[in-house]
């Protein structure tokens, strides 16, 4: 038996064993304390199913958008080994300029303000 088949069979057996152990050991009848929302030991003040403000989602999307620059600019130190590193520098500068313009636009439109 080759190594790939051994690893495949052992991973399937291990995952099935851990899943069976999980179903066997878990408590199947949760009480009301486990089902209630946790608020630092106090009684819940309101419904736990209230929708979040759209500002949280906007900030998360902005974070992902502006955090993308790390993934795009991370290979830049290795770009100096290319034949034409100036092309890479121009592209990196363009990306940084676009992200800066996007940040300025969001700031001017009030997308980063928490209170109105």
TrEMBL record:
Give the residue range of the signal peptide: 1-17
Q: What keywords tag this UniProt record?
A: Electron transport, Membrane, Mitochondrion, NAD, Respiratory chain, Signal, Translocase, Transmembrane, Transmembrane helix, Transport, Ubiquinone
Output the InterPro entries linked to this UniProt entry.
NADH_UbQ/plastoQ_OxRdtase_su3, NDAH_ubi_oxred_su3_sf
One function term, GO molecular function aspect: NADH dehydrogenase (ubiquinone) activity
Per the entry, what this protein does is:
Core subunit of the mitochondrial membrane respiratory chain NADH dehydrogenase (Complex I) which catalyzes electron transfer from NADH through the respiratory chain, using ubiquinone as an electron acceptor. Essential for the catalytic activity of complex I.
The text of the family note is: Belongs to the complex I subunit 3 family.
Name listed for the protein in its UniProt record:
NADH-ubiquinone oxidoreductase chain 3
Species whose genome carries this gene: Rhynchopsitta terrisi
Origin organism lineage: Eukaryota, Metazoa, Chordata, Craniata, Vertebrata
């Amino acid at each position: 038996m080759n190594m790939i088949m051994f690893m495949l069979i052992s991973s399937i057996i291990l995952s099935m064993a851990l899943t069976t152990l999980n179903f066997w050991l878990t408590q199947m009848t949760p009480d009301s304390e486990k089902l209630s929302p946790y608020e630092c030991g106090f009684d819940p003040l309101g419904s736990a199913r209230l929708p979040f403000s759209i500002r949280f989602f906007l900030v998360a999307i902005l974070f992902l958008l502006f955090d993308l620059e790390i993934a795009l600019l991370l290979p830049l130190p290795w770009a100096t080994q290319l034949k034409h590193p100036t092309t890479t520098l121009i592209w990196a500068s363009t990306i940084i300029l676009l992200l800066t313009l996007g940040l300025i636009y969001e700031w001017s439109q009030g997308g980063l303000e928490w209170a109105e």
